[in-house]
Each structure stands twice: as C-alpha cells, then as structure tokens.
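Reopening this one. Same input as before:
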Amino acid sequence: MNPLLRKAVEKVLGAAVVRATMLGGGSLASVSRLELDDGRIIVAKRGDNLAVEAWMLRYLSSRTDLPVPDVLYQDDHLLLMGWIDGTSGGLSVGAERDLAGRVARLHDIGEALFGLERDTVIGPLVQPNPAMDAWPAFFAEHRLLHMARLAMEAGHLPVAIMRRIEMLAERIDQELDHGPRPSLLHGDLWGGNILSRGDRVTGLIDPAIYYGDAEIELAFMTLFQTVGSAFFEAYLAHRPLAPGFFERRRRLYLLYPLLVHTRLFGGSYAAQADRILKDLGY
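Same output, byte for byte:
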C-alpha cells in the first residue's frame, strides 16, 4: 500500500489500516478496499476531481433512495467512502427489475431547468451544466459538441466525423422533438458502476449527475448490454416512453457516451460513433 495514502487515511479516520486490496479502477483512478483496526471497511479512491464526485454522492444521498456510498472524507485527489457489499458485471433478472424501480424513481425527481447548479464530471472529464430550458440545445452544445471537441483536440476524433456531428447538432430540434422534461440522472449507469447481490441492487457508484432527458440514461444502459428486457419491462410500467426512443433516439443518445470513451480511450469508439451517424443519415 502506498505509504502516503496509509498516512492520510489513518490521520483522517483515526484508525490504522490493517489490510489493503486493490480494486478495479482502470486507467482513470486508483481504488482500494481498506480494512481498519476498528472494524470498519472503507474504499479509498485516488484521482482527479474527487471533491466533485463527493458532492455528487451527497446530492444523490440527500434527494434519492439510491444506495450510494457514504462519503467519509474528500479533497480534490482523495475520496474515502463506506464499503458497499456487492459485485459488478452481470445482473440477475430480479436485480434488473429492482434497478428499474430505483432508476424510475430517480427520473421522477425533476427540476425547472436542464443542467445543474454546478458543473460535474463523467470519469475525469468535466460536464458543463448551465441552466437551460431547451433540452435539444443543451444536449447539442453541452454534451455532443463539447465532448466531440475534446475528443478531436486529443487527436482521437477525425475532423470528418466532427463535421457530421455538427450537422446533426444543426438539426437537433427536429431529432429531439418529443418534449422531454428535466429528470435527475445518475449519468454513468453501466455495469461496472452497478453493484448487486442476488436479486437486489446494493450500490450505484461513480455518478455524473445533472438534470436531463431520462432517455439519455436509458440509452447509455444499453451500450454495453448492461440491462435487457426485464429492466425495460419494469421501467416502462413506472414511466412510459414517447414513441421513437427504441427506433431512433436511443442510437442518437449513444453518441454521447461513445464520444466520452473516444476522448478517454480512442480506439474503436470513434468508429462506433461513425456507424451511428451513418445509420441516422449524417
């Protein structure tokens, strides 16, 4: 275990670390499970913008019934949280149904405007959240174009694809004419951020919150086959969707997480965005 991390944890929490286990954090953060001599089990996360993540977790904890980690300490580069028992990657049918109810209740929480009172992050990347009353304009400028520019500046998105994204943005009012209302979103619901045990969801981690169209969250949850028919059957029983989501808008909304992954990892994600743009006629 990193001795500086050990010293920081023991100073902040007043207990000695007796065992440390590295967890999956990918290339974006370093995450450890720590057992303390007072019996507590915590998670220590090191990375960037972690004070923002702590703020998001507290926001969700104070306004929703989502099972999010308790924040024990935070600064910009260290976040200490309570341990949540559960595994990620692969939900049972019962857990999908449990998740559907939780996500539907989350999406029932609304606001007057799209955006949020502050900018947030998705992974290490800033998400601008200016308050706006028009969702198509918010999505085009502060999700699609914002992330596409970051990906292009990183050398991961070809200029030709950027130009086609700009064409889509010019027609966004026609594409997103279904009249969505602002819903509170977790913002990064893929399998690695959903913990479950049996038929129960035990934890939702790594949020990227803002108020947006609930459909963008649902689309993201299909990107890596995180959920299937059991989830959608249960969700639709709580919150019906406007016509056109499964036929067209789901693919359009997938462009945002694909651009996030293009900016972070490059590789095949730009090619997937390219295929969706072609399918949509751009």
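So the earlier flakiness isn't reproducible anymore. For the record, DSSP finds ten helices and eleven strands in the chain.
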